[in-house]
Amino acid sequence: MEESLLSKWTYIFQLRGPLIIWNTLLAMFSIMGAARTAPELIHVLRHYGLFHSVCVPSYIEQDRVCGFWTWLFVLSKLPELGDTIFIVLRKQPLIFLHWYHHITVLIYSWFSYTEYTSSARWFIVMNYCVHSVMYSYYALKAARFNPPRFISMIITSLQLAQMIIGCAINVWANGFLKTHGTSSCHISQRNINLSIAMYSSYFVLFARFFYKAYLAPGGHKSRRMAASLAAQNAVKQSSSPQQASESSKFIGAGEDQAAYLRKAKAQ
Q1: Is 186 in the active site?
Q2: Which end of the chain has less neighbouring CB within 10 Å, N or C?
Q3: Residue 89 contacts residue 251 (beta carbons within 8 Å)
Q4: CA-to-CA distance for 134 and 33, rounded, in angstroms?
Q5: Cα torsion 189, 193, 198, 202: sign
Q6: How many structural domains are present in the chain?
Q7: Which tens digit of pLDDT belongs to each residue from 148-191?
Q8: For the whole prediction, is pTM greater than 0.90?
Q9: Does any domain span residue 249?
Q10: Does 5 fall in a domain?
């Protein structure tokens, strides 16, 4: 059986500088997006209630600022695929959770925008807020500032909470749709079904990751050892001492392999 292309690579591109810039830009974008969309959701909940927040797409049709940042949110799902490029170039495992999350969020976001899905205001605000924390954390990690490990647990917990709330919003949307019909609740049954399936699958995958990363005996230690062995093998596979010296420059010392796994954005 032929070896995969990735397994033949000698060099591991560390890309620390570009990674710092990338995560910082995404963190700033997410913080600005949260600051421009969350106030609209809070205002609607305080003055109009849950039904309006789930069934009336005023965040697009009446609020120009929120509508603009909704449009940017949808567009941002395409460049966010750049996370995958960093994973491949740094020769880290491309897990199912990562690419499945990115692709399905991209497709669902663009699909929902064409329908002006009213419940999406919740999903957008949650995604902006979680990404604000998550990408800030990764920017610090890339810059070799090591936040306490419980911070990464909090981020994964926030992602799990996001999936639970997403499912709850869809349950409410389904009830409102059956009670009031599409004339009063601007969301399709097809969209609700797709969204519930998506958020439910995310919850299962993130819960599985949370258990393996933080609860399973020896899980964190095993990943650290795997990272060290991968770095050593990359050097040993070099065909000359000079190549070994060059390749060692691209290998991060003691990189936490669990860090990239949490990048499955909310999203």
Answers
A1: no
A2: N
A3: no
A4: 14
A5: positive
A6: 1
A7: 889 999 999 999 999 999 999 999 999 999 999 988 999 999 99
A8: no
A9: yes
A10: no
